[in-house]
Design goal:
It is a single chain. By secondary structure, this protein is an alpha/beta fold. It has one domain (3-273): Cytosolic phospholipase A2 catalytic domain (3-Layer(aba) Sandwich), CATH 3.40.1090.10. It has ten helices and eight strands. The protein has helices at 16-26, 39-49, 54-69, 77-87, 95-105, 137-144, 165-168, 172-177, 201-222, 254-273; strands at residues 3-7, 33-37, 116-123, 128-132, 154-156, 159-163, 182-186, 229-233. Strands 1, 2, 3, 4, 5, 6, 7 and 8 form an eight-stranded mixed β-sheet that branches. Helix 1 (16-26) links the parallel strand 1 (3-7) and strand 2 (33-37). It comes from Nocardioides glacieisoli. The active site is at residues 38, 163.
């Protein structure tokens, strides 16, 4: 049996994946393959580097530190407006995120990891899904997490990348393609939330993106071949409030999300796998 952890994108909602990882690792369910997109690439890289319960504590510390410092999306409004005007493409600098990643991961490469890792990003020049599987981790994660409009495109070897969620937000199909026979899907809770017709200009892009990501995910789930197990872990502590314009800046409920999702995932695993 080849076990894959698939960690989807979702910005600050990615904290729920920490609760899912705790529930899985407590039951000694460890991955042979980890695939991550956007914030799932960061969480995924951490678990691929350290596939045991200790990684949960470290991830919790990282999320808590981000909540305290607010450095990733913490610029003052005037500064974000100035950057939007001068850059024409984004409102936040990627420097704080890069610094945080470099402090945590340093020069670690994909080949250094004990568990196979794939990180998804969207290539601008090729208009294609791109999978990073070799080289240094930090640039790959920055590319995967380059949210359009919020962060600048990431340049690697002359090619430019945007957030992997544009092409494969929850890469279940990729896990199956790579030979996984048991897939645990760590998603951030948007999959089942009803979508409403947008009524404001800033809602149009969000709703359009959600339609695309959910369509891809549901199609992948519907075509999972016989003999492959797929378990979609439940996210808790999320709501329609997380879709508001400034929700990406709100790290105040990080610990509550982790705890609530851990409880929900623990119950899910006990019921679906009979593990307690």
């Amino acid at each position: 049996m080849t076990t894959a952890f698939v960690l989807g994108g979702g910005g600050v909602l990615g904290a729920v994946e920490v609760g899912m990882l705790r529930a899985l690792l407590e039951r000694e369910i460890v991955p042979d393959l980890v695939l991550g997109t956007s914030v799932g690439a960061l969480n995924g890289a951490m678990v691929a580097r350290q596939p045991d319960l200790a990684v949960v504590e470290r991830l919790t510390e990282l999320w808590a530190a981000t909540a305290r410092s607010r450095d990733v999306y913490g610029d003052r409004p005037l500064r974000t407006v100035r950057r939007a005007v001068t850059s024409g493409t984004h409102i936040y600098s990627s420097a704080p995120l890069r610094q945080r990643l470099e402090e945590e991961l340093g020069d670690t490469t994909f080949d250094d990891l004990p568990v196979r890792l794939g990180v998804c990003a969207a290539s601008i020049e090729r208009a294609a899904e791109h999978w990073f599987t070799s080289g240094p981790l930090v640039p790959a994660i920055l590319a995967s997490a380059a949210v359009p409009g919020l962060l600048p495109p990431a340049e690697i070897d002359g090619e430019h990348f945007l957030d992997g969620g544009l092409v494969n937000s929850v890469p279940v199909g990729k896990a199956v393609e790579l030979g996984a026979t048991r897939v645990f899907v760590l998603q951030v809770g948007r999959i089942d939330r009803p979508l409403k017709v947008p009524t404001r200009p800033w809602e149009v892009a969000r709703v359009s993106f959600e339609v695309a990501r959910r369509h891809r995910f549901m199609r992948d789930m519907a075509t999972i071949p016989e003999g492959v197990e797929a378990h979609v872990l439940p996210a808790a502590g999320t709501s329609a409030r997380d879709d508001s314009l400034l929700a990406h800046r709100d790290f105040s409920t990080v610990q509550a999300r982790i705890d609530a999702t851990y409880d929900a995932s623990r119950r899910f695993l006990d019921e679906s796998l009979g593990q307690g």
